[in-house]
Amino acid sequence: GTQTSGGNVAEVQEYRTVYSGEITTLNYLVTSTTNEFALAANLVDTLIDYDKYGVPQPCLATEWEVSEDGLVWTFKLREDVKWVTHEGEEYAEVTAQDFVDAMKYILNPSNGSGTANIAYSVLKNAEEYYNGEITDFDQVGVKAVDKYTLQYTLKEPTPYFLSMLTYVCFFPANGQFLEEVGDKFGTDNVNFLYNGAYIMEIFEPQNRRVLIANDSYWDKENVHIKKLVQTYNKEAATLAPELFLRGEVDYATISSDILDEWMSDPEKEAMVRPNRTSFYSYFYCFNFDPRFPEEYEPDNWKVVVNNKNFRKSLFHALDRKAAMLTAEPYDPEKRLSNTITPKNFVDLNGVDYTQLKSLAKFANTDSFNEKLALEYKEKALQELEGKAKFPVKILMPYNTGVSDWANRAQVIEQQMENLLGTDYIDIIIDPKPPTGFLQEVRRSGNYAFLECNWGPDYADPETYTDPFSPDGTYNWPHLAEGYKEANGKNTYENMVNEAKAERLDIEKRYKLFAEAEAFFIEEAFVIPYAVGGGGYSASRLNPFESLYSPFGVSGERFKGQKVLAKPMNSQEFTEALEQWEKERAEALKKAANQ
Amino acid sequence: MANSMDNLVNGSVDNTKDTIDDIDESLFEFADFDEIEAEKTGYSNYSYWRSTFQVFMQNKVAKFLLFLMIGLLAFTMIQPYLPGQKSPTKIYIDENTGMQLRNHPPDKEFWFGTNSIGQDLWARIWSGTRTSLLIGFFVGLWEAIIGIIVGTVWGYVRRLESAITGIYNVLNNIPTTILLILLTYIMKPSVFTMIFAMCMTGWLNMARFVRNLIIIIRDREYNLASRCLGTPTRRIITKNLLPYLVSVIMLRMALAIPAAIGYEVFLTYIGLGLPVSIPSLGNLINEGRRVMGVPSLRYQLIFPAAVLSIITISFYVIGNVFADASDPRNHV
Amino acid sequence: MLKYTVKRLLQSVVTLFVVVTIVFLLMRLMPEEGYFGEGYEKLDEAQREAILTSMGLRDPIHIQLINFYIDLFSGELGESIIYRPKVPIVDILKAKIPYSVKFGLAAMALSLIVGVPLGVTMARSKNKFWDKLGTGYIVFINAVPAAVYYLFLQLYVTDIFKLPILFNPDRPASWILPTISMSLGGTASYAMWMRRYMVDEINKDYVKLARAKGLREKTIMVKHVLKNAIVPMVQYLPTSLLYTVSGSIYIESLYSIPGMGGLLVDAIQRQDNTLVQALVLIYSSIGIIGLFLGDILMATLDPRIKLDRKEGAR
Amino acid sequence: MNNTKREAILEVKNLRVEFGKKKRDRFVAVDDVSFHIYKGETFGLVGESGSGKTTIGRAICRLVETAGGEVLFKGKKINGKIDKELDKELTRKIQMIFQDPMASLNERAKVDYIVSEGLYNTKNYKDEEDRKRKVERALLDVGLLPEFASRFPHEFSGGQRQRIGVARALIMEPEFIIADEPISALDVSIRAQVLNLLSKLQREKGLTYLFIAHDLSVVRFITDRVAVIHKGKIVELAETEKLYNNPLHPYTRALLSAIPLPDPLLEKQKVLEVYDPSCHNYDNNPPKWIEIEPEHFVLGNDEELEGYKKRLEKIRVEV
Amino acid sequence: MNDSNVILSVKDLVVKFNLRGNVLTAIRGASLDLYEGESLAIVGESGSGKSVFTKAFMGLLDANGWIESGSILYKGEDLAKYKREDDWIKIRGKEFAMVFQEPMTSLNPLRSIGSQVEEAVTLHQRLRGDEAKQKVIEILNDVGIVNPEKRYYQYPHEFSGGMRQRVVIAIAVACNPKILICDEPTTALDVTIQAQILNLLKKLQKKYKLTIIYITHDLGVVANVADRIAVMYAGDIIEIGTCEEVFYNAQHPYTWALLSSLPQLGVKGEDLYSIKGTPPNLFNEIKGDAFAPRNERALKIDFVKRPPYFHVSPTHKAKTWLLHPKAPKVEPPESIKFLRKKWQVMSNE
Ligand SMILES: Nc1ncnc2c1ncn2[C@@H]1O[C@H](COP(=O)(O)OP(=O)(O)OP(=O)(O)O)[C@@H](O)[C@H]1O
Ligand SMILES: Nc1ncnc2c1ncn2[C@@H]1O[C@H](COP(=O)(O)OP(=O)(O)OP(=O)(O)O)[C@@H](O)[C@H]1O
Ligand SMILES: [Mg+2]
Ligand SMILES: [Mg+2]
Question: ABC transporter domain: which residues (chain E) (predicted)?
């Protein structure tokens, strides 16, 4: 059933926002950046989709089946879906070959796709093709059986394969068009084909983007918002609330800075509501591959970070609630997370993954513990005496574009230094500009201690191990010293690999992953911190109308949503949330029974 | 001779005759003539600096601002040592709730309120003022030193003139802001980086300014006189040329301070400024900007902006008035 | 005049070459990551080398320089690598420059329209009310960082006059405030210079003579003083005009104007070497060309300049 | 007077000075100028503005480079490259007094420094006290009070300033002083001060002056011999009275006829002679520098010289 | 000369300046009658107020100066009462014109010579277009500029100093004034050119029936051009008389000093007479005779009371106590005695 929006629907279905992070490309086959694929999600449809309770739905594929051995997936495509140009002119029909061509593009290393690894982690022969060991693309596990039949062949049975299909690396792309435009693909709205709910009418980087509903969209009845206007502003975070009040935009994040003000003004209070938390997981990474400048003493850091007691002293010293106050001053605990895999992500026969035996003890205790922190500090000091220089310089960059991050950095610096003493650690907070932040900081190992986040790519605990794999770009735990096993790999890597290898027995698989994660936390390779989302916003959207999925692009789609005449307030939100949870349980049950 | 005197007796027809006739005879004696006194007449004893100071003090606004600045400078210096001052970086905790004392409006305890994580704005503003002034002073001083050296050589040593002009033309064609951004980007944001980057760019103008002046005064006769007397170039520069630049140098230095602070704010604005952990007027304003949309929190922008404006305006005005005052033409 | 023009032109060309070469060489010092997109860390040393070689970055420096000039002469500025991968820089600029120029011109016109009369008024009422008011304004604008007053303007003026906060090409009202804000600085400096030049001119002997001739004060001001005072300012107009291309970093980012203002900052922040190189080149060339045009303009207005120094030789 | 026996302290032979490095804007300011100055005399140099008077003066004290010819001081060549010792000596012996008393003193230095600047350079004093004494004496010599030493130039009138300039030169104990229009920037009423001072010093210290001026009455009053210069060339040179009484060259005559006389009777009867350089016909008959009568030199070609000679005859007859 | 043709009459003019808060008295009660058609020379040392005095007639005082008291009667109007620029506009150019000292800077460098002269022609002779241009060329010709048609279009920098001064004179003449004030018109020029310019002025005076005030400190120039001479010292006219009277029968010690310091009157090899000391500071109030402190023959009364005019002849008067009947007889300097001898010869004739 549809909820609250009932009579509360705006006359003009136009949704206006401001944003500060400009995309660099529309090329969804290449990007792995949320910003960028969120946009693509509204322009290009995928094989399947989720409904608003998170139940898989047909999308471009009308039906699908999987072979007995779990290796071959066959999709029947919807007929008569059109690729259109930015002017809405029909270009071609969407066929099975488009998925093949897109995959061919992604698996060509010279195209520099950021998500190829995800595709070749499941598809047969894909990795070999990518690495040039195979040159015949026909051997790769993707095939257009006929115009409307698409077949994927996997390396190994992959229970969560379906959920991966909403990720960018499984998007279709018209091969002829790719050929035609070559390098220019996705550089602007013209060099782009649309088969999704919207067409990008105007694309003026650093100015605005206008998306209008696609007239030839196969499911256009479900596209209620006719126009999306997204305006760029470097100061979006600062200006958005004011713009919202003046009725110039329909969405504004209400940062913790100004939340008090909004909450205390009845008129404004009626417009502000909490956000849903997401499955983004936030954690503090210790960097095992420090590549920061000499002045921050990377070599010293390398010594201390490889000392477990040192890590654990920090692990227990981080007062996560104090830190969270900078983002979530009203209910900080609702977002704290003690594991890397968030609660409610997946479950095993009704038991939440985080409550599996090995993980439960971490999941249910707050890592912040002053006493332990000081104990570990003593141990670390003993062990490291003479080997490391104290206080240890800890380079902690933050993104100046995220308004509360700077504050959090200062809070953490002061809180941890207070607790552990400045003779022990010297946290150096290092402001970095938002543009290219990840590139500049995390991916280049230009930090010692950093708040990082990770969003799931498919519905399996494995997804939360990806950032820590040797080719991840987070903190390179495989380089940690003292964990090397006979095969030359680190314990954690072996544990993960063992879990990954278990493909059919889900129960065993989950347990193995849980053990790996528990080990990871126990050894304090990272400090789990929080889940994403949350915070407060003023918005003319009903969050419960949105498609729902913890991963992939579905949640980014505007399809199915309506612009409200009046923003929700907190109370309405809570009520809607309760109702939604009820409805969802039913929906999931119903789906499971099918 | 007698003839001419007759004219006098006969010809005096002036109507003041009556009053002048009864002047005491004794007054018509010769007065003593003192050549030395005559030599001394008309000119008062004069001191350059005193006159400069006097002329400066005649400008009431500048006088007021000067005292304000002296007070303010003294205050920023001693502020941390005054009783009851808070730390600029410490995050204060609300004792009742155990949480950070966020966005606490100005009151008796926190004179300028607290910021969004509970740091004392009053302390931060003075600490920021110290940082910004430090940057300003260093940059001003450096600009003066390098600017003067280059400018003097440029203007005085004819052999190097065209070479330096060439270099200047090239450097001058790379806009200041661009160089500034490039440099701060390449280096880590820190007070040193700021100072360094601004020093790299600021001296150009100073040098040109000095050079133009030097060219004007280098061919004045008194410099020829010095050359005639065999005065070495070094001393010509220090004794004959530089003293004429004092006013300009002071002015430039005074102006360099607001300019440096302005650049600091600019760099912070584009995200290349000092980290928030080192308060500066630039990042205080930048922080304040984040909450400017909320009327009750605007004090976080207004306080630093006001302090900044007062400082920059004061230096600007003082610099200009001083430059005027130090021009001997303006000494009566 | 022709001789003078040719001479100045040659000078400018030489300077331009030197500047361009220096910029080019400086850019070789930029970190090499700036030639790779997102995939930088995924590549190993050999692959990186291969890419750099294919881009011609491993050629001897003089070959690179020659190639660079060849490209430059054919109007080729290269492609953006990171900022907007694979998009020709020329295209990026094409989209941005019109906005900056429109705003720049509007602001410049406004500053001139307000600043020049203000300066004239100040000069004429030296040390009286208007002069003091104008001086106050000039001091304020020069001393207070632009960031501060721009912000206050954006905050309060939009509120009071119900103007849109953000720029929107389709809403004429959204042009007003950015233009005004942008013109404030120019207004102050035009007024300041105008005042200074006017005061200089007013004290000159020929003005006394004009007065003695019996000309009306207004005539003197317009026909003699104003004209002569404007001449030294005119010299800088071409540069200002050309610099409108570069936009205002503050204003454009505050009001979301998609001009050149933020481009350089973005390009530098993202280390997009080719884009940075192109921009620095453009800015530097603008300066040189502007100076050249300014000098020529000056020479046409001021008959003394053509003689080029002969007179003032002493 | 029997001049032939007198010792020439300075000789200028075929002096040539050019300005401007490049060929195109080269400008010959002084062209083939020769004269000599006897020890103890005052030698005048007159000519209109821009004729090269200052340049000659500056060439002598080595402030401008010479492009040709020789300058001999006491028989030693002093232009072009010279050794350090000589340079030092010349700095002391040849001094200059400048035209503009407002511009020729460093306004930011005390009189004490200004006057002793030369002493510092030549280290020509025993100790601080000696230096002070010397400054004091120099000031007294020019009629200023020793207490003025601690003042700045602003505080003085034009005449006083000019005297400070003289003191500055004097303290070097020079033998030869180039006075470049020392009084033309001064008010009439104080010119006499400086003229008197110059004569006094000459009497007392046996100085030799090169006195540059464009005011011919002053030149007549103070100089022993005069050279008239026109466009970088000396056109006539003679003992002062001789020149004033029998000017030969048309330019000299024009110049003299134009002197304003402070005497209404004479002045109102005065006839102006106008000099037109095109009266010369030098194309195929170039001029020569000839001693037309003892100690009277004039520039002219053969034809003109004939005319000059006739003129002299006539004057002699008349007398 | 009789009073009927007095064209301008200045009475007790006091002019003050405000200089950074201090008041300076530049003209201290000077009076002067100017006769139609004459040429009057005002002499005096630098800073004595010659320029200020004459500028006051035209309302051309610098902005910081004002007429404190006194009157300037011209054609029945008291110019000293004029307050507004518009009043002065009626006078300037049409009635009074001025030639300034600096030929190099008195012309607008950015406008052609012709247009600058034409401005005056259009304004004061009401001529336009070709007629005006013709007139300009005629005037340029009058002031001795060869090839005026071509020169019309040239700019000041293409002219030499003497030529520029001619142009400035042309502008003054083009205004068709009654009175021409020449403020040191030749000081910056070479003697030969100076003589030419003076001749030119004399010629123009005849042709246009001008009354001319010359300001100069060159007594040679004065002797050449002046009918009458006024000697100024410290803001006051201390002696005035016909040219011959002042030259040959000077009465004021300052005039003596001025004359006897001229080298032309000196004896070669002897010291010239020289004025000691420096002029008075005009910021201070001057008591008695301003020249007293520098006057070797000063009387005690000179330091006490300011002398009034004592007439020597109907045309000759001086402000010095030496002319008072009670005053002791004073020997003037040698050179003055020499001049007086000439005077005696002349008056005996
Ligand atoms: N440094 C210089 N560079 C180029 N030309 C010069 C320089 N100094 C002098 N001249 C030129 O040389 C010529 C002679 O100049 P000089 O100063 O000797 O003349 P002067 O007779 O002293 O004139 P015045 O009476 O004006 O002082 C002038 O035409 C002048 O322009
Ligand atoms: N604008 C002014 N402000 C202040 N004082 C002035 C101003 N103009 C003239 N004076 C003063 O008035 C006095 C007379 O000046 P004036 O120019 O009339 O002298 P002058 O006799 O013309 O001298 P010179 O021969 O140097 O031209 C001087 O002391 C001068 O300083
Ligand atoms: Mg000279
Ligand atoms: Mg004057």
Answer: 8-259
- pTM of this prediction? 0.79
Q: Find which of D18, D25, D53 to mutate to test the C interface (most C CBs within 10 Å of its CB).
A: D25
What are the structure tokens assigned to B166, written together?
A: 């060439």
pLDDT in tens, E135-148: 999 999 988 888 99
Closest partner CB to D156 (pick from B43, B47, B232): B43
Taking CA–CA distances from E97, the nearest residue in chain C reads C212
Written as six digits, the tokens of E130 are 């070709």
Question: D226 and D280 share a domain?
Answer: no
Q: Is D236 inside a domain boundary?
A: no
Determine whether the interchain pair E277/B39 forms a contact, defined as Cβ–Cβ distance below 8 Å: yes
Indicate if D87 and D223 belong to the same structural domain.
yes
Give me the domain span that covers residue D256. 241-319
On whether residue E213 sits in a domain, the answer given is: yes
Compute φ and ψ for A213, nearest 5 degrees: -60, 140
How high is the mean pLDDT in each 10-residue block of chain C (314 residues)?
82 83 74 65 68 77 83 79 83 88 92 92 84 89 82 82 81 88 91 87 86 86 86 84 80 83 78 81 83 85 61 30
DSSP-assigned beta bridge partners for residue A283: A452, A528
Residues D36 and D142 in one domain: yes
Label each residue of chain B as H, E or C. CHHHHHHHHHHCCCCCHHHHHCCCHHHHCECCCCHHHHHHCCCCCCCHHHHHHHHHHHCHHHHHHHHHHHHHHHHHHHHHHCCCCCCCCCECECCCCCCECCCCCCCCCCCCCECCCCEEHHHHHHHHHHHHHHHHHHHHHHHHHHHHHHHHHHHHCHHHHHHHHHHHHHHHCCCHHHHHHHHHHHCCCCHHHHHHHHHHHHHHHHHHHHHHHHHHHHCCHHHHHHHHCCCCHHHHHHHHHHHHHHHHHHHHHHHHHHHHHHHHHHHHHCCCCCCCCCCCHHHHHHHHHHCCCCHHHCHHHHHHHHHHHHHHHHHHHHHHHHHHHCCHHHCC
Q: Which of D201, D231, D261 is the last residue of a domain?
A: D231
Residue C283 within any structural domain of the chain: no
Alpha helices in chain E, H assignment, sequence order: 50-58, 85-91, 113-125, 129-142, 148-151, 161-174, 191-208, 219-225, 243-248, 253-260, 334-348
Which domains, ranges and CATH numbers included, belong to chain B?
A: 69-76+126-330 (1.10.3720.10)
* pLDDT at residue A434, as a whole number: 67
Asked if residue C205 belongs to a domain, the reply is yes
Give me the residues paired with residue D68 across strands.
D16
Both E111 and E153 in one domain: the answer is: yes
Q: CA of C218, closest CA in chain A: separation in Å? A: 48
CB atoms within 10 A of CB A547: 23
D52 lines ligand 1 (CB under 6 A): yes
Residues 6+ apart with CB under 8 A from C107: C179, C180, C182, C183, C186, C244, C248
Query: Could you tell me if E106 and C209 are in contact, meaning their C-beta atoms sit under 8 angstroms apart?
Result: yes
Q: Could you tell me if residue C165 is inside a domain?
A: yes
- Does D147 share its domain with D124? yes
> Distance, in angstroms, between C162 CA and closest chain A CA?
9
Asked if residue E219 belongs to a domain, the reply is: yes
Domains identified in chain E, total number: 2
Nearest CA to A134 among A145, A125, A142? A125
CATH number, residue D184: 3.40.50.300
Q: Nearest CA to C247 among A22, A206, B265?
A: A206
Cβ within 8 Å, pair A430-B275: yes
Residue C21 to residues C28, C68, E106, Cα–Cα distance (Å): 11, 9, 48
Q: Do chains B and C touch (3 or more CB pairs under 8 A)?
A: yes
Q: Write the ipTM.
A: 0.76
Q: How many distinct structural domains can be found in chain C?
A: 1
Backbone angles phi, psi at B56, to 5 degrees: -60, -45
